[in-house]
Amino acid sequence: MMAGIVIVGAGYCGVSAAHGARAAGYDGPITLVGDDPEWPYERPPLSKWDGAMPRLQPIFPEDWYTQNRIDLKWGAVVTAIDRSARNVTLGTGVTLPYAKLLLATGASPRHLPPHAPSDACARYLRSHADAMNLAQDICAGSDVVIIGGGFIGLELAASLSARKAFVHVIEAQERILARAVPPEISQMVLDLHKTRGVTVHTGTTVDAIKNNLVSLSTGQTVRAEHLIIGIGSEPNTVLAANAGLTVDNGIAVDGCFATNDPDIFAAGDCCSLPVEGAGRTRFESWQVAGDQGYRAGKVMAGVTPDPTPPPWFWSDQFDHSLQVVGQPSPAGTRILRPLPSGGLITIETDDNGTLTAAAGFAAGNAVGRDIKIIQKLMQAGVTPDPAALADPNTPLKTILKQR
Amino acid sequence: MSDWIDVCATDDIEEEDVIRFDHGAHSYAIYHSPEGEFFATDGLCTHEQVHLADGLVMNHIIECPKHNGQFNYKTGEAARLPACDHLGTYPVRVVDGRVQMQLSE
Questions:
Q1: How many CB atoms lie within 10 A of CB A225?
Q2: pLDDT for res A115
Q3: What is the pTM of this model?
Q4: B63 in contact with A at a CB cutoff of 8 Å?
Q5: What is the pLDDT of residue A121?
Q6: How far is Cα A358 from Cα A326, in angstroms, rounded to an integer?
């Protein structure tokens, strides 16, 4: 068999890499190996249940893989990389030769530390199977405690509370989504959850979990028939580390996704990129995973990809949506743009007035258009008049057209 | 051949913009191109059933407000992931300053 591109991980990143390689004109064999027992699917719907159950949404229809000659081995595990022989070994003992190898191994939920009170009944969410287990076991009237007021925790809180479960969210920071959005947006999300019946405890940690009771640092005790942990994720780096690849807050890659082995690449949640002033950084989001995978696919096909757009992210909670572009910093200068619908967009600029990040939250899809225009304004490096940005009657598209 | 349906006045849609138009049980998106032409497609994104009229029109591309899938609204062609299924398109004409669209039988 001719050695071609082998991709380890058939999530959105790995599938996008296969897509990117074909889009760049690569004609050789592409093998995509994924350990999930399901056909490659989208992860975002796993925490956002707009119906009674989480949806299983394929990334591509089955015939896409045939048409693009992608040899998909799903439900298969890669156990080792032999860099000198240039092959990978599958759990079945079969070896696959590669010319270029992409590690798109993703991340796993961060567990409670071992010294923490028993997490025997703790649940985590990463796979479709995890989501189905939650949906099957938690029903109307269930008492649920979610540790972690990040996106996974809050999206699940919204999904479960819509099913009439009683949900408590425990967040150690003084506000929810503290790493991801500015305080004004955190407050709006908090208000929405409170209005819809979710109890959110901020600045609170867990002292003990015993007999389905969670003791909080505030002295309060809440009942947890079901305990869900959403405290972030850890990159899946064991395969890379065992092969002697450099791991530093994720599989270390350069701007073209190459590891310290020029024939091995890594992209998505499992990798870290050098960021000036911030060290090696992981960008964990659906859009970044897809974008990095697509670019890495192009690189492996020998094509230099376009410059990376600013990272973009979305979340759905109840009937509201949140979008973020760039990386908001709580210390940055913020322009507030209230939306006629009652939503809000916050726009950050640097000292020169160049846009650096934005976040928006509103009912329905009212923030999508403005966030996309801001992303284009960021890429164009323009310095719009702050008063115009703050004025909801000045369409942002006008600013984009004027430049 | 089915009848032409009245949608809106030509100046109800700004150039390089889109509006939502509901008719019967269906929702459509009606576009005014930068060249001054009008087009009609299905109103919901083929990826996750979001109204495209809330999205951004740049040139001949409509970008879904939710997950940034893109379509060429003149042809209905899906132009960027996560959109992979094309949008249906419909004939449009302008009569006496009114935009009209024709539904397939």
A1: 15
A2: 57
A3: 0.90
A4: yes
A5: 74
A6: 7
